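It is worth pausing here to work through a concrete case rather than discussing structure prediction in the abstract. The textbook approach is simple: state the sequence, then state the predicted structure, then interpret. We follow exactly that order.
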Amino acid sequence: MNQLLSPKQVVQLDTNLYCEIEKFIGGGGQGEVYQANLNGKPVAIKWYFPEQATEEQSQALEMLINSGAPNDKFLWPLSLATSSQIKGFGYVMPLRGARYKSINDLMKRRIDPSFRILATVGLELAHSFLQLHAKGFCYRDISFGNVFFDPDTGEVLICDNDNVTLDGDASGGVLGTPRFMAPEVVRGEVKPSIETDLFSLAVLLFYIFMIHHPLEGKKEAKIKCFDLPAMNKLYGTEPVFIFDPNDKSNTPILGYHDNAIIYWNIYPRQLRNIFTKAFTDGIYDAKQGRVRESEWCNAMIALRDSIIYCGDCGAENFYETDMMSHKKGKLCWSCQKLLKIPPRIRINHNIIMLNYDSKLFNHHIDPDKNYDFSEAIASMNQHPDLPNVWGLKNHSSETWHVTTVDGVTTKVNTGQNVKIALGIKINFGKTTGEIRF
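Step two, the predicted structure:
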């Protein structure tokens, strides 16, 4: 295959700088992507095929470049690129690091991240699209082909941002990826918008957590020829959530849709409820029924905070408020052994499980710093001489005021620990938490 650009070729940027092409990375329907050198820094360049290098695409890129990225999770266009040696144009964007893997790798089980990592991926995706939509942009093509993440940290990168448009712009642009498009887009009733983005985001999150599509159950299994009319019916004209509590016509089949069946029963009720809303109300009421980005953010944080570890096999499980009411206790989903519930701290309406590796962040204690997980302000800390004694270590710059059940108040300065004990209250400055068992 003849590539559009060649190694050592130089392209000019609209910032009066030059890039030297280093190697071909890959190609798609619109063009090809290369690694290049910009003043000693590796970057990526997307170069359009001639038929895609239109004036409309150039104007769209200029608008995105002038606007700037919503956050650093987007591999956003930085500058237009041209060459005297080849027709057309391209653009420069940040280069994706090798540590980031495709969601396709997760689907094909080439990577096996923890539930905590998946919750972090979900949080970063929801928060990133919240910031994109807050700027009045519509992504148009949310799918797992456009998302990468670090399986060790949960950090995400979102690519193919040259298709982003202003919300409400119905001229041109992609409609989306099959299986991810909102039903009303599949039916041809509307163009992509923020509301249709929300449906695609819900599908992407369902894939990440369930390794399955939310609309592929009994109805999909009955299809003999998976052609365009069949797809339009399944995803557009007759979509039914596989776990719809009021419509059992599309339930998953054991032995055929096992991923969905197994994972659905592992996750806590709160996450199942939000997915149910996304694919029942969210199917029938595109304006009011869709789950908003902030709802997903809060659900992902609650999921991460609810993780507990099985003392026998180490598997991640999830705490639910009614666990203590089970007569025989709650069993680990992995080894079926009885779970021992660790202490927890309640801060306002949030419950954070205090495992050996648990941390508190500004998000938990400062109402003005929602979604700030940049730095831990507290962490669990084991006593060096008494392994059964644990404390919460103060990493913040604030002095905590700790009150025991007997009403005795003491100060805990930066670097000091407060012993985990039933009923103690910790005043973090802007909010107070209470330890429970």
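Step three, interpretation. The mean pLDDT is 94. The CA atoms of residues 30 and 47 lie 8 Å apart.
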